[in-house]
Design brief:
8-stranded antiparallel β-sheet, 6-stranded mixed β-sheet, single chain, 2 domains, globular, alpha+beta, 18 strands
Length: 383
């Protein structure tokens, strides 16, 4: 579980320390307070494990940052720090460090300054300044290295941090067809990208239908009449043109039967924006995330339906940790006061804090008197 995040000089987060040791956590604050920047800082540091080159995932003008995270996996706690400053497109300063403990004293697994990595026994390894440290160590060291064995659990955890910014195009460019060759290329990647797009949604549905059919049926059940009541059926088929030959083109077709349509099928471009967003949120439950970062899931979703969606996300939080940036009362009214972090903009910088013990007690009394948690938050944010 991700337990702590400390952010320095990342966009509006000049010095922000957050205790995130909760299965579900909501970042609550007004527009422009910096909720998105907190989510992006967590996503930013996880990219250093996925990408072997800094420039591939962290281009100039969005690369600067100094982020430290604490992660507890089993009996081991890790503390991973990354500091990057790109003064120009060709001048880069970078430092990385990973410490761990099994309950006794802390030990350093590696530290990195520019192109030099120091590992155990003060051994030095040299890499490109543009290279990221953890992928470089997996490329350099033998597979049975003790260092790699210690790195493996954290690496797997970080690669499964998924950021759902949900900024899908309002009108998809694709209708219902997935080209077989592009699908095969996507599937062949070690970690297919999680994207808020209609194309990604179609690929995930094809993948679940053919390779994980029980999960596909679960998706259909969740969005169907016994669940959210949006889509009665999802139909996936495979098509090869008659003149394509044995090695010819293959296409996958995905069609949807929405509630009340009398069995008429629609393409994904014919679904409403809200329906596509809900479908993306449901599919996120099957992405094997260690941490799922959601940015304003309430956008374009009716309040009554949103309550059901958030309850669904919470019910799956035993499988992954959820961190949600929101300003929707419908979201944080479903959570406990301990699950809330207040985000504000003060003196030009983002601040994040938990409710104080006094505020927690006041919140409990407020709710006992039939007030809503959102009203309580409004009262303390106005103070």
């Amino acid at each position: 579980m991700l337990t702590k995040v400390h952010i320095h000089d990342f966009r509006s987060c000049h010095d922000v320390a957050i205790d995130v040791n909760r299965p579900v956590l909501a970042l609550v604050g007004r527009n422009g307070a910096g909720k998105t920047n907190v989510l992006q800082s967590i996503n930013w540091i996880s990219r250093f494990v996925i990408s072997s080159q800094i420039a591939q995932k962290i281009p100039f003008r969005s690369s600067d940052g100094n982020v430290t995270i604490n992660v507890i996996l089993g009996l081991t706690e890790y503390k991973y720090s990354v500091k990057v400053n790109r003064e120009t497109p060709t001048k880069l300063t970078i430092a990385e460090r990973l410490d761990f403990t099994d309950g006794a004293a802390w030990s350093t697994l590696f530290s990195r300054e520019q192109g030099v990595i120091k590992v155990e026994d003060n051994k030095k390894l040299r890499i490109s300044v543009e290279a990221t440290c953890i992928p470089a160590l997996f490329a350099i060291l033998p597979a049975d290295s003790e260092l790699l064995k210690k790195l493996q659990p954290l690496t797997l955890f970080l690669t499964r941090i998924h950021y759902y910014h949900l900024d899908e195009e309002s009108q998809p460019s694709t209708a219902s067809i997935v080209v077989g060759s592009s699908y095969d290329e996507w599937l062949a990647k070690d970690m297919p990208a999680v994207e808020p797009s209609a194309e990604y949604t179609l690929r995930r549905l094809v993948n679940l239908f053919y390779d994980h059919n029980a999960k596909f049926e679960e998706v259909v059940e969740l969005v169907g009449s016994n669940g959210l009541g949006l889509i009665e059926d999802i139909r996936v088929s495979k098509y090869s043109p008659p003149d394509s030959g044995a090695d010819g083109a293959t296409f996958y077709v995905v069609r949807f039967v929405v509630a009340g349509s009398k069995d008429k099928t629609l393409g994904i471009d014919e679904l409403s924006f809200g329906t596509r967003r809900v479908l993306s949120l449901v599919l996120s439950l099957f992405d094997a995330s260690s941490v799922a970062l959601f940015e304003h899931p309430e956008d374009a979703i009716h309040r009554g339906l949103l309550v059901k969606v958030v309850e669904l996300l919470r019910s799956y939080s035993t499988k992954s940790q959820l961190i949600i940036a929101t300003h929707s009362p419908a979201v944080f009214n479903l959570l406990g006061a301990e699950d809330i972090r207040l985000v504000a903009m003060q003196r030009g910088g983002t601040t994040v804090r938990a409710l104080s013990p006094r505020e927690l007690g006041a919140a409990a009394k407020y709710l006992q008197n039939d007030g809503t948690f959102s009203d309580f938050l409004d009262s303390i944010q106005e103070d």
